[in-house]
Design goal:
Blueprint lengths: L1 E4 L5 H8 L5 E4 L5 H7 L5 E4 L7 H5 L6 E4 L9 H6 L3 E3 L6 H17 L1 H9 L17 E5 L3 H12 L3 E5 L5 H6 L3 E2 L2 H7 L2 E4 L13 H5 L5 E5 L8 H9 L3 E6 L18 E3 L8 H21 L13 H24 L4 E10 L8 H16 L8 H7 L3 E7 L7 E9 L3 E9 L3 E7 L2 E6 L3 E8 L4 H11 L4 E9 L4 E8 L5 H8 L4 E8 L1
Parallel strand pairs: 1-2, 1-3, 3-4, 4-5, 6-7, 6-9, 7-8, 9-10, 10-11, 11-12, 13-14
Antiparallel strand pairs: 13-15, 15-16, 16-17, 17-18, 19-21, 19-22, 20-21
The chain binds nicotinamide-adenine-dinucleotide and (2R)-2-hydroxypentanedioic acid (2HG).
Pfam families: 2-Hacid_dh, 2-Hacid_dh_C, ACT, PGDH_inter
Keywords: Amino-acid biosynthesis, NAD, Oxidoreductase, Serine biosynthesis
GO molecular function, one term: phosphoglycerate dehydrogenase activity
Length: 527
């Protein structure tokens, strides 16, 4: 079998792959996209970091490819849906670079406070500018951490060592769990108002894109320092530029950018911005960790069929996988839906399997798929079929599973009830014709809708003209509705409307729909 390594990988990982007599390993880090589309035809495995773009076109040419393996976490450069459609397993190595990235954040924090990069540059230019580069102590200052997952909590630990006061905001981890880390749990606005330093450690999701925007900067202390060693775009780049110009932000440290490498990014011209070229994970130790992990995972899969850390397939036997496949999609989509409509930190998840689906020998992969669906909108690429139950456990989520063999209205049904710190909801779905995923219930409302694309969920009072008004409002913004399904609870005179639109609906349009008469709740969903 042939393995192509198309990005720079630590030598130890390449040696590990080469030590297997059944594997022929080629390293080529200079392929163009067109060359990769041609070359990929011969390979069984593709090992990448973040540079290789594994597009639909690459995957369509991948006649024998079985696995795309990422040394690192982020899979922004892989078309996972296209890989799934072609039965190609996509895996990553989510553990190996946590400490390294947290240390980089602390290095950036210190460099920012003491103007080290600027002072170095000035000295190299033959100057001695002692006054110009007077800095700030971090001792006793407040560090606000947004997203206190694996990296965020190591940053907190190291910052406490520097005797900083650490506060954190993470809507998906209960305050008790945050407080247990010796970190004060606060709301988003409180963090913005109190922090002297703000660092983001969330994944890039719909919710975190532009999380630190104009509004957020307006709520910060004057003189705040802002750090982003997570993903470009969590801190809006134009708004950051403006906030620096207005004197709100005293300095920013950026390891990641919306466009990498950045082209003519005005932030890089500002003295108050220090930057590194996505070096968060770049230490000998982390690169060794992820290279060895990725090599082990590829060997295990190619030689023994054992899947680890896959984001698109559970670790089960191929035959069982074929039978469960459509149910896995249903379970994951329903999980994603219930998470998107239920704000707050999940506390309890109950999954009920009804009818034909109960004949599956083992329902655990389906429950894991539900968990993956629930956790992915919160954690992005970090969640896979292996670690989803671990993440759920770490977050203190109670998960229960039950079965009922007798089906009522549907031959098979998966229902998920989720309770969070703020709300609770129940959703249910079925497979039509054994493979078409359909949503059939949200709480007391019965529907029949395909679960895909850009969706808008609207709760309204059942009165003539409301649906027309919603359609007109979207039409005014040139948004085409490609599907509409209405569920009713007659006795309460309430409707639920699920729309699919050809293009995503912006937050401003959502607010306009919400302002219409008889409309109570409007939620934007991506499935
Ligand atoms: N710079 C680098 O080279 C580098 C290296 C590794 C990881 N990363 C990035 O660092 C980030 C964090 O990675 P991790 O391993 O700690 O992930 P993680 O999944 O362990 O933690 C992410 C945390 O963010 C929280 N979160 C999600 N949405 C949020 C929101 N709207 N507001 C506040 N918190 C929210 C989650 O609940 C979770 O606790 C990711 O974006 C990852 O891609 C960057
Ligand atoms: O491979 C890299 O250097 C990027 C690392 C990091 O952003 C990741 O997603 O793991």
């Amino acid at each position: 079998m042939k393995v192509l390594v198309s990005d720079t990988l630590a030598e130890s990982g390449i040696e590990k792959l080469r030590a297997i007599p059944d594997l022929e390993v080629e390293v080529n880090t200079s392929l163009t996209h067109e060359e990769l589309c041609q070359a990929i035809k011969e390979y069984d495995a593709l090992v990448i970091r973040s540079a290789t773009k594994v597009t639909r076109e690459v995957l369509e040419n991948a006649d024998r490819l079985k696995v795309v393996a990422r040394a690192g976490i982020g899979l922004d450069n892989v078309d996972i849906d296209a890989a799934t459609k072609r039965g190609i397993v996509v895996m990553n190595t989510p553990e190996g670079n946590v400490i390294t990235t947290a240390e980089h954040t602390i290095a950036m924090l210190m460099a920012l406070s003491r103007n080290i990069p600027q002072a170095t540059q000035s000295m190299k230019a033959g100057k001695w500018e002692k006054k110009k580069f007077r800095g700030k102590e971090v001792f006793n200052k407040t560090l606000g951490i947004i997203g206190i997952g694996r990296i965020g909590r190591v940053v907190a630990d190291r910052a406490k060592g520097l005797k900083m006061n650490v506060i954190a905001f993470d809507p998906y981890i209960g305050p008790e769990a945050i407080n247990k880390l010796g970190v004060e749990a606060v709301t988003f606005d409180e963090l913005l108002a109190r922090a002297d330093y703000i660092t983001v450690h969330t994944p890039m999701t719909q919710e975190t894109r532009d999380l630190i925007n104009k509004d957020a900067f307006q709520k910060m202390k004057r003189g705040v320092f802002v750090l982003n060693c997570a993903r470009g775009g969590i801190v809006n780049e134009q708004d950051l530029y403006q906030a620096i110009e207005e004197g709100i932000v005293a300095g920013a440290a950026l390891d990641v950018f919306v466009e990498e490498p950045p082209k003519d990014n005005p932030l890089l011209a500002l003295d108050k911005v220090i930057s590194t070229p996505h070096l968060g994970a770049s230490t000998d130790e982390a690169q060794e960790n992820v290279a060895l992990a990725v090599a082990d995972q590829v060997i295990d899969y190619l030689l023994h069929g054992t899947i680890r850390n896959a984001v698109n397939a559970p670790a089960i036997d191929g035959e069982v996988l074929a039978t469960l496949w459509p149910y896995l999609q249903l379970a994951e989509k329903l999980g994603s839906l219930v998470q998107q409509i239920t704000p707050g930190a999940p506390e309890e998840i109950s999954v009920e399997y009804v009818g034909e689906v109960c004949s599956a020998k083992d329902l655990k992969p389906l429950t894991i798929s539900v968990l993956k669906g629930i956790l992915t909108p919160m954690l992005g690429d970090q969640v896979n079929f292996v670690n989803a139950p671990v993440h759920a456990k770490e977050r203190g989520i109670r998960v229960t599973e039950s079965t009922r063999e007798e089906a009522e209205d549907f031959t098979n049904l998966i229902s998920i009830y989720m309770k969070t710190s703020k709300d609770e909801n129940l959703v249910a779905g079925t497979l039509f014709g054994k493979k078409d995923v359909r949503l059939v219930r949200i709480n007391d409302f019965r529907l029949e809708a395909a679960l895909e694309g850009h969706l808008v969920l609207i709760y309204n009072i059942d009165t003539p003209g409301t649906i027309g008004a919603i359609g007109t409002c979207l039409g005014r913004h040139d948004i085409n509705i490609s599907m509409m399904d209405v569920g009713q609870v007659l006795e309460r005179g309430q409707n639920i409307i699920l729309l699919r639109t050809d293009t995503p609906v912006t937050d401003n349009v959502i607010q306009e729909v919400l302002a219409l008469e008889n409309v109570n709740i409007v939620q934007k969903l991506e499935l």
